[in-house]
Amino acid sequence: MDNQIPTTEDTIVFTTQEKESLRHILVAHMHMHPIKTWSWRMLFSVKSFALSVLGLVALCSGVSYASQSTLPGDLLYPVKVEVAENVQGALKFSDDDKLAWESEKLDRRLAEEDALLGNALDNADEQEQQSEKQKNNEEQKSQDEQIQDNQSDDQALQDEADAVGKEQEQEINNETNVEF
After folding, report:
1. Is residue 116 within 8 Å of residue 72, measured between CB atoms?
2. Average pLDDT over residues 113-127
């Protein structure tokens, strides 16, 4: 059965002249419509890459800006010292600018030291105030206990004085009753 249906290979045969003619038509079409070196997909990739680079630059700038007010021991302090300041220093081209930048970095380190010492002194003052407050609270409790003890002593003395007064009153009453 396969032999009964003719295939296209068997039925279509081009002559040499037809082959040359088709080749010339194909080459002319290729010259009129060359293959593009970029496509819309490539443009989309370029946009994605550009947006990614822009996002990365924005992120790095934000982190660098946030690190400017950090002190030693903070999470972003290495970013400030190792990255941001090195980049700023690299952007100084003249010797005067480089000298001014080094002076500014020294001023920054001194300001950081002052801030750290200020924080340490503030912490020491705060601890001293807390211990003073605790001491005052303990003294107040002690004084309250003394007042309560004195009040109980005063009450006991008052009760004793009342008892003595009643005894004396009763004796006086007994003496007055005896005289009549």
Report:
1. yes
2. 74
Secondary structure of 103-125 in HEC code, one letter for each residue: HHHHHHHHHHHHHHHHHHHHHHH
Give the angle 90-92-96 at the CA atoms, nearest 5°.
140
Q: What is the C-alpha to C-alpha distance for residues 173 and 163, in angstroms, rounded to an integer?
A: 15
- pLDDT tens, residue by residue, 54-67: 999 999 889 888 88
CA 152 to chain centre: 58
Report the pLDDT value the prediction gives residue 111, as an integer from 0 to 100: 87
For residue 20, how far is the Cα from the chain centroid? 75
Nearest CA-CA partner of 61 in 73, 79, 49, 81? 79
Assigned token pair, 162: 């009342």
From residue 135, give the alpha-carbon distance in Å to each of 58, 144, 160: 53, 14, 37
How does residue 7 score in pLDDT terms, banded at 50, 70 and 90?
low
pTM of the complete model: 0.42
- At residue 2, the 3 state secondary structure works out as coil
